[in-house]
Amino acid sequence: MADLSSYEPLSEKIAAVNGSILILVGLTSSTSENLVIVQKAEETLKHLEDNVENVKQMAENGRLQPLLKHLVEGNFLVLLILKSIFQE
């Protein structure tokens, strides 16, 4: 899935699956002995970070690094979008 998520139309479909971001965040924070699964989940989440709605879902599930990155490095439009999303 990590390789597929690098292609934007497929990353949108992955993120649209109900609970997909929650599962990926859970995998990255697990103490799984299978490091390949953890690394692939991490890579997939990295590809999904470009979408502000995905960043919101990641933050809601305890993955705050993408939100902080957008707040620090993001342009004004990204900040306005994030603000509007969290005010809903």
Characterize the structure shown.
By secondary structure, the protein is mainly α. It has one domain (2-87). Helices cover 75% and strands 0% of the residues. It has helices at 2-5, 8-16, 20-28, 35-48, 52-60, 65-73, 76-87. Helix 3 (20-28) packs across helix 4 (35-48). The longest helix has 14 residues, at 35-48. It is globular. The protein starts with a helix and ends with a helix. The mean pLDDT is 86.
How many structural domains are formed by the residues? 1
User: Which consecutive residue ranges, at least 5 long each, have pLDDT under 50?
Assistant: none
Counting DSSP H or I runs of 4 or more residues, the number of helices is 7
N-to-C span: 31 Å
Entry keywords:
mainly alpha; single chain; 7 helices; 88 residues
SSE blueprint and pairings:
Blueprint: H1 2-5, H2 8-16, H3 20-28, H4 35-48, H5 52-60, H6 65-73, H7 76-87
Describe the structure concisely.
With 88 residues, the protein is mostly helical. The protein has helices spanning 2-5, 8-16, 20-28, 35-48, 52-60, 65-73, 76-87.
